[in-house]
Amino acid sequence: MTEQVNFNVTSLSQKLLEGWTLLQESCPNATCNVPLVRNKEKEKVYCVSCRQFFNASSLEPIPGDHCPEANYNTDMQSQYHNSQENQEEEEAGWSTWKLSEEETERRRLEEKEEEEVQEAWRRRDAQCAKEAKQDESALLAAKMLEGW
Asked: CB-based burial of residue 45 (10 Å sphere; 0-12 exposed, 13-18 middle, 19+ buried)?
């Protein structure tokens, strides 16, 4: 279904680039529901999914008036679908390998960072304990000098 949607979007985009107008009406075929486009002359509307022309005023199918590119579009859709599948398969294989390598590196860096943070906390705790001991000793010495 995604491939069909992508194909429809690509085909609609192409028609818009050719000067066709996107309409708010959808294809009258019950199974389609794709927005229609109208030609520059405003006499025909077209469904990129059904590849069918319709009368602009009544939205009735124009008998025998299929897109002259219907076979081309079918071939193009098939090629588009195949290239999408191949690209997705290649990307999936590459990204899985790449992700696992990247994931391994990321985890290694996270573990190293965690160890560095733990070591910094241990040093800080040791320094605080040392300073507290010194403060305690200094306070005790001061009290003793005062005659306590």
From this structure: buried
